[in-house]
Amino acid sequence: MGAVLLVALAVVGVGAVVAALVRAGQREARAEKARLLREEQVQARRSLDAVWAMDDREFEEYVAELCRRDGCTDVKRVGGAGDLGADVTGLLPDGRRMVIQCKRYAKHRTVGSRDIQTFNGTARVEHGADVPIFVASCVFTKPARDFAFRHHLCLIDVNLLGFWNSGTALSSFLDLDISRSGTNRRLRPDRD
């Protein structure tokens, strides 16, 4: 009887050790996954150094070229004075009309709700957008992201722009819930 009890205690002890090791492994895997995601974001942002050096027109051309790369057709840069919020227009690969507003701001700035509301007021009515897209080289404020979610606008902030620039297709961003994803924390300005 004593030997059976010892064996049972040993099995329970080994089981507890194995369970603790599995939990530790899972914690390590989660931490590594989070670290890799942070590293991807850093790499994506680094690839945007050239974007922050562009002027507004060059940024609009850059966004138009990313659209063409991803299979969009009839892509035109139409931005300029009196554009009513349309900087790039075209057709998505599935045929829906996209209208894009581009804001090339310094990375430490934000795009607020007022800009998103203005774009929302013209994208569909004035330009016939099926898919209004707002692309910025910075982040959107939380109220801007919440408004965009409620009104079905696609927001591409600096983080998503980095991924788009690195090869992720535009279609991957169209159904993201920007109110729950991303961040509204400003990046630090560069100090030389």
Can you put this structure into words, describing what you see?
It is built from six helices and seven strands. It has helices at 2-46, 49-52, 56-69, 113-123, 142-150, 158-165, and strands at 73-77, 88-91, 97-103, 110-111, 131-136, 139-140, 154-156. A five-stranded mixed sheet has the order 1-2-3-5-7, sandwiched between helices. A hairpin with a 5-residue loop joins β2 (88-91) and β3 (97-103). The radius of gyration is 23 Å and the shape is elongated. The model has no long low-confidence stretch (mean pLDDT 84).
Give descriptors for this structure.
192 residues; alpha/beta; five-stranded mixed sheet; two-stranded parallel ribbon; 6 helices; 7 strands; 15% strand
Topology:
Blueprint: H1 2-46, H2 49-52, H3 56-69, E1 73-77, E2 88-91, E3 97-103, E4 110-111, H4 113-123, E5 131-136, E6 139-140, H5 142-150, E7 154-156, H6 158-165
Parallel strand pairs: 3-5, 4-6, 5-7
Antiparallel strand pairs: 1-2, 2-3
Helix pairs in contact: 1-6, 4-5
Quick summary of this structure?
The chain has helices at residues 2-46, 49-52, 56-69, 113-123, 142-150, 158-165, and strands at 73-77, 88-91, 97-103, 110-111, 131-136, 139-140, 154-156. The protein is an alpha/beta fold.
Strands of the widest sheet, in order across it, are 1-2-3-5-7
Q: First CA to last CA: what distance?
A: 77 Å
Model regions low in confidence, pLDDT < 50 over at least 5 residues: none
What percentage of amino acids are in beta strands? 15-25%
Overall spatial form: elongated
Number of strands: 7
**What count of helical segments does DSSP give?**
6
Helix coverage percent of residues? 40-55%
Whole-number mean pLDDT = 84
* Element pattern in H and E: HHHEEEEHEEHEH
What does the largest sheet look like? Answer: 5 strands, mixed
